[in-house]
Specification:
By secondary structure, the chain is mainly alpha-helical. Helices cover about 75% and strands about 0% of the residues. α3 packs antiparallel against α4 and α4 packs across α5.
Length: about 150
Amino acid sequence: MSNEKMNKNKIIALCAPVAFLLFGIWIRIDTMSMTARDAQFPNLVAYATILFAIVDFVSVLRKKEQKSVCGDANLLKVLECLIAMCIYVFLLKKIGFILDTLLLTSYTMFALGYRNWKLLPVASVVITAAVFGVFYGLLNVPLPTLFL
């Protein structure tokens, strides 16, 4: 592999840790206006994101050879899933967490090629219930719901 291509692949591989590092810093700065109690969980997420971004950044720098990150990616499917997630965020307060998450998980699995029609709804319900249980039950994070 040519040296120019290796440098390009390394730069592309460094984009994700840099983006996550900036995102973690943004979360931390944004929580400064919150009360200490309200900022606990976002700060935990911010510090974890920053830590993992730094570890990933150092890991990418230490690798001698970088493989192409986007070599076999279907960029249209990636864009489709990103648009679905934007719609998810828009609908979250309007239709509630449970219905919105059921729709997103079902659509994402379908869009990525999972076509087992018997297991798809079951998997969507299990994923939604697990995420709801963790955030609402264990972490006491208030979620927008229509019925609870």
